[in-house]
Amino acid sequence: MALEWVILTYIVGAEAIALLLVTMPGLKRLRKGIIAAARSCLQPLLTTIPFCLFLLLDIYWKYENMPKCEGAVCSAAEHTKHSKSIMKSQRNFVLVLAAPLLYWLLYSATNMLVQVEKLNLQVEQLKQHHSD
């Protein structure tokens, strides 16, 4: 199961980097290429949504079937192992929530920038039409 979490971590990282590049000011010359690259990545990244649902079910199943470590029955080593397992599940839960959130933000940002570009093109055409 560790490979799935590594893949999700890379996906979240790629989405975060793409979102950062798309929204970064001062990249006027590269903006069209960055937006085109981000939009071409959106469809393959959509497959992360069912993948995240599967991993969310995995987290839930592991949490429900986790042995309980309570009181004097639990040694220090078992308590440490139990705590690490809980923290790992929480980290994985944050990854599962971050992937669809970043996907939605990337989709919204690229869609908005494409609309802004279209509107700027229309404004330029109107300016040329009125100057003639």
Automatic annotation (TrEMBL):
Q: How does it sit in the membrane?
A: Multi-pass membrane protein
Q: Which UniProt keywords apply?
A: Endoplasmic reticulum, ER-Golgi transport, Membrane, Protein transport, Transmembrane, Transmembrane helix, Transport
Q: Which residues form the signal peptide?
A: none
Q: Which GO terms describe its cellular component?
A: endoplasmic reticulum membrane
* Main subcellular localisation: endoplasmic reticulum
Give any single GO term for biological process.
endoplasmic reticulum to Golgi vesicle-mediated transport
Tell me where on the tree of life, at the top rank, the source sits: Eukaryota
Keyword Zinc-finger on this protein?
A: no
Subcellular location(s) per record = Endoplasmic reticulum membrane
TM regions (residue ranges): 6-24, 36-57, 93-114
Q: Which InterPro entries match?
A: BAP29/BAP31 (IPR008417)
Role, per record? May play a role in anterograde transport of membrane proteins from the endoplasmic reticulum to the Golgi.
Q: What family does the database annotate?
A: Belongs to the BCAP29/BCAP31 family.
Kindly provide the name given to this protein in its UniProt entry: Endoplasmic reticulum transmembrane protein
> What organism is listed for this UniProt entry?
Ceratopteris richardii
